[in-house]
Amino acid sequence: xxxxxxxxxxxxxxxxxxxxxxxxxxxxxxxxxxxxxxxxxxxxxxxxxxxxxxxxxxxxxxxxxxxxxxxxxxxxxxxxxxxxxxxxxxxxxxxxxxxxxxxxxxxxxxxxxxxxxxxxxxxxxxxxxxxxxxxxxxxxxxxxxxxxxxxxxxxxxxxxxxxxxxxxxxxxxxxxxxxxxxxxxxxxxxxxxxxxxxxxxxxxxxxxxxxxxxxxxxxxxxxxxxxxxxxxxx
Length: 234
Known about the structure:
The protein is α/β, with parallel strands linked by helices. It has 2 domains: 16-92, no CATH class; 103-230, Rossmann fold, CATH 3.40.50. It contains 9 helices and 9 strands. The strands form 2 sheets. The chain has a 5-stranded parallel β-sheet with strand order 6-5-7-8-9. The protein is globular.
């Protein structure tokens, strides 16, 4: 008869191979950029099993869209991980790698856009880039973004998260030399259609050098920014 599990231990209801095939070679294949685990659609048990496997392999990993319950499970398996509840992101190990490449500046139009912007910032930082955040600089008060112009112009890539009308990336792209990664957020009243309005604004930008990721995709924006800055002087 199999022994009873110890208190606090976990016995998986199904093997890892039944729901996940982890890409352990991705970091080697992608120049050190490791696999991320999207937790939002997964059960707590599945996230825990994935974390256990990654811990055994010592694989640097980002866990994105983490619920509070999933964050608690990850803290049990990876007690030395860093967790940011605002960004819904857990990074293991907690310390990012030494920063290389160019500077990434992450700006958000309003405080309501901060969770998405923070996800982008932490992603780029844990992929090995120096990151500076600029918050609450939306176009309703243009003096605010202009007050950070020297910093924005020192970046090798700027990530801009904005909801509502989504105008901020176009403004920033008209002021800086660096490429701009635009992130539409689902912030806004009814006609913003959950982020569709800012998405269309950003796709229709008249400022050159704007790349657009999907709605609320802070991880995708941070990853792209890290890739761009990697090949920039810094």
